């Protein structure tokens, strides 16, 4: 077995949740973290004190010198609720525009924060664009994925899939739609417990999603199938070999029908 050699190590200060390299800009990546803080005031009067989840998303740039030494620096930072996942979307960013992609930040308040990657004085910045409230139940947004992550994809728009702690999946059919989010969004119960992960099959033209959850189930979904009474039938369900639940899924970008779990 081959072992990877670490070329750079540093503390992220808070608990690390996600690292996402920019798909087309070398050495630029987003690092996301979270922390759970106990409310000391509530702790004095309650045996079950409230907890606050805070987080940070750092936009970082890596540098490699002539000797191969790696260093990383923070070039911008966003602070808010705990960050559970991030994903880059490049829809429309290949056209003349003031941004170089959109970073989706899924947080613990049930929001998806959309940040444009902009440039000012030759320096990259995360500029707030939209905030989508994905649920009104206090559920955490656990993971997200964009449908434009396929091989050689140059999309003018992208679909969103997002998983939540109440076991539901949410699909938004257009990043750039001007319609009401509630009118556009499709929501259905996918798992009995936390839906830890959802990802597009990057070879399906935005039609097929896989998801995994704390109910030890791997499921497939076809977006062309209708939702009835908040329910959508999975194309398959697999529970073999997932004793610890399913926390991460990725469609192979170069070979169709291959997935990493």
UniProtKB/TrEMBL annotation:
InterPro entries in the record: Diphthine_MTase, WD40/YVTN_repeat-like_dom_sf, WD40_repeat_dom_sf
What's any GO biological process attached to this entry?
Answer: protein histidyl modification to diphthamide
Q: Which SUPFAM superfamilies match?
A: WD40 repeat-like
Q: Which GO terms describe its molecular function?
A: diphthine methylesterase activity
The record's GO CC annotations read: cytoplasm
Q: List the keywords (alphabetical).
A: Repeat, WD repeat
Q: Which domain of life is it from?
A: Eukaryota
Q: In which pathway does it act?
A: Protein modification
Q: What is this protein called?
A: Uncharacterized protein
């Amino acid at each position: 077995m081959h072992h990877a050699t670490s070329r750079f190590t540093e503390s992220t200060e808070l608990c690390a949740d996600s690292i996402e390299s920019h798909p087309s800009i070398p050495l630029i990546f987003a690092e996301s973290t979270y922390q759970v803080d106990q409310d000391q005031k509530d702790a004095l009067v309650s045996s079950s004190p409230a907890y606050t989840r805070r987080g940070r998303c750092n936009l970082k740039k890596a540098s490699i010198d002539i000797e191969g030494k790696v260093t990383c620096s923070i070039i911008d930072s966003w602070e808010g609720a705990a960050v559970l996942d991030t994903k880059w979307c490049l829809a429309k960013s290949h056209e003349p525009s003031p941004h170089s992609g959109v970073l989706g930040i899924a947080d613990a308040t049930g929001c998806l924060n959309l940040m444009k990657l902009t440039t000012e004085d030759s320096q990259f910045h995360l500029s707030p664009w939209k905030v989508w409230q994905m649920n009104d139940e206090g559920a955490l947004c656990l993971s997200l994925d964009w449908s434009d992550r396929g091989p050689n994809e140059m999309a003018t728009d992208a679909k969103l899939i997002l998983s939540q702690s109440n076991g539901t999946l949410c699909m938004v059919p257009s990043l750039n739609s001007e319609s009401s989010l509630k009118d556009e969004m499709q929501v259905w119960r996918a798992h009995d417990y936390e839906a830890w992960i959802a990802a597009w099959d990057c070879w399906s033209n935005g039609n097929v999603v896989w998801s995994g959850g704390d109910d030890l189930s791997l499921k497939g979904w076809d977006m062309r199938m209708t939702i009835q009474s908040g329910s959508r039938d999975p194309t398959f369900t697999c529970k073999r070999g997932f004793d610890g639940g399913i926390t991460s899924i990725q469609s192979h970008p170069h070979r169709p029908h291959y997935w990493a779990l």
